[in-house]
């Protein structure tokens, strides 16, 4: 479900961009994100807070893009979202003594506290870098390249990061029967 939420609006944005340009694509992304949140709410009666944040950002930055006919706003949206994720992971860990990676994955795997801290720090770094990378592509390449990067580059790097995290975790898990 989470993958659908992340990928579907981006995929629809990409298709709409290729067919009708950035402004129609932005409207499609706003509608798709709102529809997915509505569907999630109807199905589960619960929507993740970061999904609400994502909707708010797409409405504000996408709305500004359409209203002002300036694609800069929509190009900033992924960076703001990535940097918000980094800040939330950092603040939760530093000031609320809550490791979000452990909160999300701790029921699936048992790791030492130092590993959870390392993984949380890696996610903070990943989100910070992704935000900067989005801006680098947005400001140094044409809009067509940025849109392709948003779908293929962003999702590809996320997949590689998650796979690397899995390999890192697997390498440090206790072996069967060695408790």
What's the helix and strand layout?
Layout: H1 2-20, H2 22-44, H3 49-68, H4 72-95, H5 100-105, H6 113-140, H7 143-172
Report on the structure:
The structure is a single chain. The chain is mostly helical and 179 residues long. The protein folds into 2 domains: 69 residues; 109 residues. It is built from 7 helices and no strands. α3 packs antiparallel against α4 and α4 packs antiparallel against α6. The protein is globular. The two termini are 35 Å apart. The model has no long low-confidence stretch (mean pLDDT 90).
Sum up the structure in keywords.
single chain, 179 residues, mainly alpha, 84% helix
Brief digest:
With 179 residues, this protein is mostly helical. The protein is built from seven helices and no strands. The chain has two domains: 1-69; 71-179.
Query: What's the number of helices?
Result: 7
Tell me about the biggest sheet? none
User: What's the Cα radius of gyration?
Assistant: 18 Å
Percent in helix: over 70%
Ends apart, CA distance between termini: 35 Å
What value does the average pLDDT take?
90
User: How much β-strand is present in the residues?
Assistant: under 5%
Sequence stretches where pLDDT stays below 50 over 5 or more residues: none
Order of helices and strands: HHHHHHH
- Tell me the overall shape: globular
Count of strand segments:
0
